Amino acid sequence: MKERPIVSDQEMLRQQEFMKLVKALDARPQSYHIVSMGCQMNERDSESIAGMLNEMGMRHEPVREQADLILYNTCCVRENAENKALGNVIWLKELKKDKPELMICVGGCMTQEKGMAAMMKRRYPFIDLVYGTHNLYKLPEYIYRVLTEKRPVVEVMDIDGEVVEGMPEARKSRFSAFVNIMYGCDNFCTYCIVPYVRGRERSRTPEAVIAECLRLQDEGAQEIMLLGQNVNSYRGGGAAFAELLYRIDKLGIPRIRFMTSHPKDLSDELIAAFGELEHLMPQLHLPVQAGSDEVLRRMNRSYSREHYLALVEKLREMCPEIGLTSDIIVGFPGETLSQFEETLSLVSAVRFDAAYTFIYSPRAGTRAAAYPDETPYAVKSERIQRLIDLQQAISLEVLEKQVGKRERVLVEAVSTRDSASVGGKTPRGHMVNFPGGAELIGKFVDVEITSAGRNTLRGRQIISEA
Ligand code: 5AD
Ligand code: SF4
Fold it and tell me: Are residues 143 and 177 in the same domain?
């Protein structure tokens, strides 16, 4: 991975000045609502956006229709994500008819797609600001321009991203935090649009990452999730990902997790970390995508089924309790029935705790979009249903095996279904609900698992007798 320039301090100071300028304007939005679509990387970006908007003197408005500024942080990994974003934007046009001062901003992966910004400018002139993934840090300048020039700003940078340090932030959670360690992806899996919209791989320095972790720890973080499209190829200041993890482990933050990992780059050192590090949780998201070597080859995944299965074996040898999760694509162009059945047999062999399953969605500009695809959609739907049924049965069996165990749960929230219960995760990443009140949020609670549902566990708090 190449060293990448860091956006200069001077530029970040300029943006701070724009935040002050916006704040001083009489006619500016007073409140904002951010809609974050897609992955954790976007969620983390939304925390930076919220931080910038707060510094511009705006406050978060939980009800979207009531906000003066609505910002869509979009995703484009599959067509339905894009349709959802565009559908929402069209709906905003109606809202703006009743509220002409409403400011509409659209950014993120979708707007970074080739030709998208130009199309949006032409077809949706009511959008006030369109920006991409590489110029998020310029949001204060763009918002100032929209407000003072009184015309839309459409700015998407073609150049590859730099590393941005020092953006303001408004974290969603005080005790569980996302920390970016690298950006972009160089893998060019043939189905995937991410390398085109998020740019080339670039890492933050270990010092910047550790400084952020220390700050979060001071502020009360109990858990951090290190983020990157492919954290295994992290290389910051010469340090590999496993080295970074060893350094972070020493800080003493109780729980460390990371995502996403690419099987081709999962090193023995990293596998060893699961046996050695005190704070690294026994959980790994390791997308396999397909179970057939031929499909993996055409996906440009650079590993075989056998290699993946060997990794799983090594991981379980090192850490028998590790919970593995995965992403799987069904109906990749040319996937035959028997190739699909190899995915089923891989899933049966590995027994993931959970898997996110997707029907292949062609993305313009990717190599696979030009591959012949003769399988009817109805057949793909049947296939994915077989896969979902299989995985659900496995997930249930995995969860049932947890019944009777004692687990330490980091409580995240009051349960959505039952206000007398709270929910949080075990070290392995299983969600447990148990009777308890909001005062437990952010705390560790020892819980006995009493039953298993389809996706979650139930338990009861163990009150120590000491
Ligand atoms: N179609 C379907 N699924 C996709 N993914 C990425 N690109 C596509 C696509 N074109 C899935 C992969 C990836 C996850 C984030 O999204 O499984 O791991
Ligand atoms: Fe997309 Fe492959 Fe990169 Fe993941 S590793 S972001 S699937 S190109």
Answer: no
